[in-house]
Design goal:
With about 170 residues, the chain is an alpha+beta fold. It has one domain. The chain is built from 5 helices and 8 strands; from the N terminus they run αββαββββββααα. The chain has helices at about 1-5, 25-30, 115-125, 150-155, 160-170, and strands spanning about 10, 15-25, 40-50, 55-70, 75-90, 95-100, 100-105, 110-115. The strands form 2 sheets. The protein has a 6-stranded mixed beta sheet with strand order 2-3-4-5-7-6. Strand 3 (about 40-50) and strand 4 form a beta hairpin. The relative contact order is 0.16.
Length: about 170
């Protein structure tokens, strides 16, 4: 529970304006979530909160290094995640999720826990195809296997099957 608190921001006492926060990313974040495909990362998330009368805009700038394993060579490498995401919190009567990046919160909400948002954005940044940077320049040409028997069949295709000859004769009549 302690690690969740380090990603929480007290919004109740904030006056309208812009506020900056910085969160360190480490293994503690990923241990909160069972079955996480990522178990460790290092870096920082820079959070800029802009509080207005009707909403709070949270802009998150990620500078995180994710340890991944290459799908081709099985070598470990660090994937640099440099992304920005925005989440809106609108004030309303009851708390609910309107969209992926739009949430309704009450005016009495004390704190916003950003650990779930940070975790989700990091997990979504993991590429589907994990290729070590040393292997990225290699071309991905398709290799087609051929054998001599296939070539001999192609050469024999000049001779027409006698059944086709009979069908051609029937067609002419």
């Amino acid at each position: 529970m302690k690690s969740k608190e380090k990603y929480s921001v007290d919004i109740f006492r904030l006056k309208p304006g812009t506020y900056s926060y910085e969160f360190g990313i480490d293994a503690d974040l990923f241990q909160q979530f069972e079955g996480s495909p990522v178990t460790n990362a290092s870096g920082k998330v820079f959070l800029t909160l802009t509080k207005q009368e009707s909403l709070i805009r949270a802009e998150m700038d990620f500078k995180v290094g994710l340890p991944l394993v290459c799908d081709r060579s099985l070598r470990e490498f660090t994937y640099d995640m440099n992304e920005a995401h925005e989440v809106l919190f609108k004030f309303g009567d009851e708390e609910m999720e309107m969209d992926d990046d739009v949430y309704i919160i009450t005016r009495n909400t004390q704190r916003i826990d950003f650990s779930g948002f940070i975790y989700e954005f990091i997990i979504l940044a993991v590429p589907m195809k994990k290729v070590h940077p040393d292997l990225e320049d290699e071309s991905e040409e398709e290799i087609i296997y051929t054998s001599e028997t296939e070539h001999t069949e192609d050469n024999d295709s000049d001779e027409t099957d006698p059944r086709w000859e009979m069908l051609k004769k029937l067609k002419k009549n």
